[in-house]
Amino acid sequence: MGLFNLSPDIPWLSLIWLSMVVPAVIIALIPAKQQEAMRWVGASFSLISLILSLLVFLAYDPVQAGFQFVERLDWMPQLGISYLLGVDGISLPMLVLNGVVIFTGALMSWNIERRTKEYWVLLLLLTTGVYGVFVALDLFLFFVFYELAVLPMYLLIGIWGSTRKEYGAMKLTLFLMAGSALVIIAMLALYFGSGLRTFDMLVLAEHVTLAGHLQRIFFPMLFIGFAILAGMFPFHTWSPTGHVAAPTAVSMLHAGVLMKLGAYGCLRAAMWLMPTGAEAWLPFFAVLTLLNVLYGATIAMVQRDAKYIIGYSSVSHMGLVMMALAAGTQIALTGAVLQMFAHGIMTALFFAVVGRMVYERTHTRQLPELGGLLKVMPFAAWMFILGGLSSMGMPGLAGFWAEFTIFIGVWEKYPLIAILAAISIPITGAYILRAVWAVFDGEVKNPEFHRLPKLTWQEYSGAIILAVILVAVGIYPAILTEVIDTGVRPVVTQLTGVVVAER
Length: 503
Hints:
Elements: H1 12-29, H2 35-59, E1 68-76, E2 81-87, H3 91-108, H4 116-135, H5 139-150, H6 152-160, H7 165-193, H8 201-207, H9 212-227, H10 238-245, H11 248-273, H12 275-301, H13 306-327, H14 330-362, H15 373-376, H16 378-391, H17 398-413, H18 415-421, H19 424-440, H20 457-475, H21 478-502
Antiparallel strand pairs: 1-2
Helix pairs in contact: 1-2, 1-4, 2-3, 2-4, 3-4, 3-11, 3-14, 3-20, 4-5, 4-6, 4-11, 5-7, 6-7, 7-9, 7-10, 9-11, 9-12, 10-11, 10-13, 11-13, 11-14, 11-21, 12-13, 12-19, 12-21, 13-14, 13-17, 13-19, 14-16, 14-17, 14-20, 14-21, 16-19, 16-20, 17-18, 17-20
């Protein structure tokens, strides 16, 4: 049983994504000069969406498991398209993650003064798409929400970004559009090849009527199409560039949530709906993810820009997620979803500190130009250190349990890959400690740093929320893992059934 019951007559999942559409409409109608009102509307509804997500999470019954809070409405029955929503142990942590990141990101957006109306509308529409992806069970609806989440990024980076923002926005868009093209092809293969003429993922997963040889052809298209957004090697190069160019809140959403959409799509769509193709291709992708992990960590080690360090660190950590997906075991998939959550919170905290607290005050992210900020902004320093410890996999923080679970799960399937991937652990520790030393340790290098503006209540509040979650999940990971375990089990059953059938 969940902690309490929610009325089945209320469309809770629709309310979650609509809680982002409503403020977008309200802000669009507010006069342009009333910027403070726009901020309060955006932040207030972001908090409402977080509360709704937490209510659904706490009301979910892990004993019953499966998809709950299901909403179904025929949309285009002639084409087999329906408005079908539901949540399980995989999507629930992602809903909460998105709620936390958009609320804290809204707090970090309080300083946006240029074209404030357009910024908030695009930010909220992006979040609408993310929520929609995590609750959609119709593949066509899934793709519609997916595109809604991706497209606003171009404008958010191109208009409000920095550091080669036009280049970063265009590169991101081209890569993700190429991925979307692959996803569409694979979707149509499932639609026509299965003979079911439906986009209902529950039906497609139950029957899996797409022939094995067709799965082997179209699985890599669907997997890679989503994996591009997850930053999988060698399709990762858009990611650090996009992180650096994006404004703070968008960086938080970009690394904290959007990259998880890619991994979620790989798990929910590709692996669940094409298990035969997964069994054939996942060993190959496991090798690519090893390059992700080691390459990302190594390149992060030599960066001089603090945002680039976080960007390449995200490539490495998302590589661990994709590696766990490639392993496909119960423990590995549980670790993958837990890592998506832990990395999302950790990276949001990183970008809040580096992008909002440090860069927007010092106007530099170059490590040689910083130094001694522990004496000027000790709160920011300790928040960065906490995020760094989680990134390093320090026991007692969320990152430890995520990585530990992943390595156990990957060892079950690919022990050599697990051993080689472990090389990234000391490298991660090295670049995190290097960043802490360069930015916060020692004497204040620039006398102007003594006159930096004080942190705002929004910055304190957002960072504290993220930090508390890292510690809470680190102390009691079962609050997530017990739910996640029920969600990944059907995917493992699909993959295991393929292996047994082939034997």
